[in-house]
Amino acid sequence: MDRDKIHALLEKVRAGSMDIETAMAAFRTLPYEDLGFAMVDSHRALRKGFPEVIFCQNKTREQVVGIIDSLSQDHKTILATRADVEMFEAVNKKYPEAKYHRQGRIIQIGETPKARTKKSILVITAGTSDITVAEEAVVTAEAMGNIVEKIYDAGVAGIHRLFGRVEKIIGANVIVVVAGMDGALPSIIGGLVDRPVIAVPTSVGYGASFNGLSALLTMLNSCAPGVSVVNIDNGFGAGYIAAMINLAGE
After folding, report:
1. Model-level pTM?
2. What are the C-alpha distances in Å from 95 to residues 55, 88, 100, 101, 110?
3. Which terminus of the chain, N or C, has less C-beta within 10 A?
4. How does pLDDT run along the chain (250 residues), one tens digit per residue?
5. Contact 30, 41 (CB under 8 A)
6. How many helices, marked H, and strands, marked E, lie in the chain?
7. Long-range pairs of 244-247 with CB within 8 A, sequence gap ≥ 24
């Protein structure tokens, strides 16, 4: 963060040569903190409504802790995704309040905020093997101030499992559908509701699933309108988009 630029902007506001709206617009483009190994975007919450989220894969423990140190100066809730137990233990030594969402593989610093809307997000998985990706979406959306409900293990191989949940499905404001194998479940859900459906292909499946490519292509070719698709295993991306949709207008 460039303190001199912030000071100069605030001086202009105090002097009356710049209005508050113009100053706020300028704050949106302020830079970052350069840690050498990372340039931490400390103003992302101002632009996007939620702080930068740390992607832990291929980062060292020291790098992740360093980025948390930087973000914690300005933000109450911090998420670090794709974190293993060893990464959490390293973070937990410095931040005893840190929580580890084991299934979602997310480290969370700070409390989950109160829901900012009464509208809910529903996360559905085709199988139990898809829950890891689904929980990444759940934790992300909850951390952004949303009510999240779940229906797990209700894929097309036993579609009758959804029949008793129709009321919950049509009552959700946004639906995230997580599926591997044939990836057909999002199309079925999309045909039942008048709400946005975010499809998440997973790498779950046998050889011809090509690590999720088969499910991805099925979802991209969905015949049901209102279905959008994120990348393979990208529960975080789905949860983030669902949260933005659910909070729109709040």
Report:
1. 0.85
2. 18, 10, 12, 15, 10
3. C
4. 445 667 778 888 888 888 888 877 766 656 777 778 887 887 787 778 788 889 999 999 999 999 998 888 778 889 999 999 999 999 999 999 999 999 999 999 988 888 989 999 999 999 999 999 999 999 999 999 999 999 999 988 888 888 888 989 999 999 999 999 999 999 999 999 999 999 999 999 999 899 999 999 999 999 999 999 999 999 999 999 999 999 997 7
5. no
6. 10, 11
7. 244/49, 244/144, 245/173, 245/174, 245/196, 246/117, 246/119, 246/120, 246/121, 246/141, 246/146, 246/173, 246/174, 247/49, 247/116, 247/117, 247/144, 247/145, 247/146
- Residue given tokens 């509701």 in the structure block: 193
Please report, for the chain, the start and end positions of each structural domain, with discontinuous segments joined by +.
1-30, 33-109, 120-247
Round to whole Å and give the CA distance between 21 and 101: 39
**Residue type at 101 in one-letter notation:** H
CATH number for the region 120-247 comes to: 3.40.50.1970
Is residue 248 helix, strand or coil?
Answer: coil
Q: In the beta sheet, which residues pair with residue 34? A: 39
Is 109 within 8 Å of 78 (Cβ atoms)? yes
CA dist., res. 95 & res. 47, Å (int): 27
